[in-house]
Amino acid sequence: MYFLGLDLGQKRDYSAVVVVEGRAFSGLVVRYAERMPLGTSYPRVVERVREIAGSGELPGNCALAVDATGVGAPVVDMLRAARLGCDLSAVVITGGERGVGKGSVAKRDLMGELRVLLEQGRLKIGSLREGPRLVRELADVREWDGRVGSYGAGKHDDLVIALALACWRAKRRGI
Fold it and tell me: Which 3 state secondary structure label does DSSP give 87?
């Protein structure tokens, strides 16, 4: 099973998509990561996700978690209309101590789950073109100023958020 995470950005932040392969006994392996150029239109982001979800072993064997915070809701509608062949979960990322209802998760919980997977050796990063950038972002993840939910990775954390969303979806699938 493959899990995709999509973090949306456009003008100041990048849109990023990460594909993680879930293996029942050995954990998760990052198979693909892409940070789209600044200014990429949302219709193009949707088209790119459709291309990725339609490639290799992914069709009919994937689940997508997309950041539905802010402008995310209309993009989620576009993704649903694109018929990706993936189970789609819209996730609102909150800055508080916990999510506020179904379909929401606190950023600190996303980052915490990711940290646990890394510490337990249950998340591996395959050989990727964007691998070095992803590793840099992961190394930069920190709590900015001690406030709950204020996690980030320096200037950009787009790949990390996409990875965290993919892992969050995999965990809900029991992997």
Answer: strand
| 116 membership: H or E segment, kind and range | helix 107-119
Considering its fold, how many domains does the chain have in total?
A: 1
Question: Measured at the alpha carbon of residue 162, what is the angle toward residues 39 and 109, in degrees to the nearest 5?
Answer: 130
Alpha-carbon distance 49 to 16, whole Å?
Answer: 10
Q: Which domain holds residue 24?
A: 2-172
Q: Are strands 86-94 and 62-67 parallel, antiparallel or unpaired?
A: parallel
Q: Report how far residue 73's alpha carbon sits from residue 62's, in angstroms, rounded to the nearest whole number.
A: 21
Q: What is the pTM of this model?
A: 0.89
pLDDT at 145: 42
Give me the CATH number covering residue 97: 3.30.420.240
Name which of 172, 167, 162, 171 is nearest 66 in CA terms: 162
E-assigned strands of 53-116? 62-67, 86-94, 104-106
SS3 helix, strand, coil % of the chain, rounded to 5?
35, 25, 40
For residue range 38-81, what is the model confidence (pLDDT) as tens digits?
Answer: 999 999 999 999 999 999 999 999 999 999 988 788 999 999 99
Chain length of the chain: 175
Structure tokens at 57: 């072993």
